[in-house]
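Quarterly update from the structural biology core.
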Amino acid sequence: MSTETALTAADLHLLAEAGGRAPSLHNSQPWRFRPTPDMLGLEVHADHSRAVPAADPDGRALHISIGAAVFNLRVAAAHLGREATVRLLPAGEGAQPRAVLDLSAPARSPRPFGTDLYPAIVKRHSSRHAFTNRDVPEAVVADLITAARDEGVTLTALEEHGVRQVLALTSEAEARIAADVTREAETRRWLRLEPSCDGIPLAALGSHDRDARVPMRSFTGHPPHHVTPADRFEALPQLATLTTRFDGQTDWLRTGQAMERVWLLATVHGLRASVLHQAVEIPDTRWRLRDPAEGPAHVQLVLRLGYGTPGAASPRRPVEDVLDQG
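Predicted structure, tokenized:
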């Protein structure tokens, strides 16, 4: 049954504000939102002017970012009492829009994701502070695994061997990224664009940590010089991978939705999170992230989870910059 109630200007603003709070590589925020012609839905377009081609030549991270924005839109739609029916890549790969949300029907459930995730959209930040050594309870991990599975993505909580392997590959990728002059210049350009940004949710910037104040290098045995002895990091971080069976644009968009669903749910549970992105930026280190015992799989992201100080909010583009009123 259709509500046949057009989205108001206030509805569109709320939706775009929620979508615009999604994480993205280098905080690039590569999306634009546009109401459908009948004003009963929302289109999500890729903003290629905000792509990061050196770090993301295939657009994988761009699509993951857009997928995260799509999930925030779904949560915001539920907050408005609307059911969100999503079509990914309705015109095919590489074509705009990347997703269309039909919001014409009333919500079938006030909490379609099992809990109210809307307040967590504002509270979710990337934290690069030290976490405590408190383990994430198995019941919480199980909830996160289920959340990812509901989006068609596999979340795997890594055991000690897997964590050490990921950290070794991250260290290797860091060194290679640091030696890439083009990537270095691209990252510095984005840091200049967002000088006050302390949380770039889809990037652990590797060799650039000294400028971005991203304390991920402590994981690889090279603590940044701005970290004091009191800022010691957990001995063995709690890491999880998000994997998909295939590796196309649809899979990347689903990964973004799964990542954001997991991250918002983790926030509800009082967890902090950040992303280790270096190893997935380089094809051969990304391939070595996979667990051959699990069969064919493509690692899309590595998440660090734990308890600790919340990260700072990232600067956000004004709604007027990302919402086309039609």
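The two ends are 25 Å apart (CA to CA).
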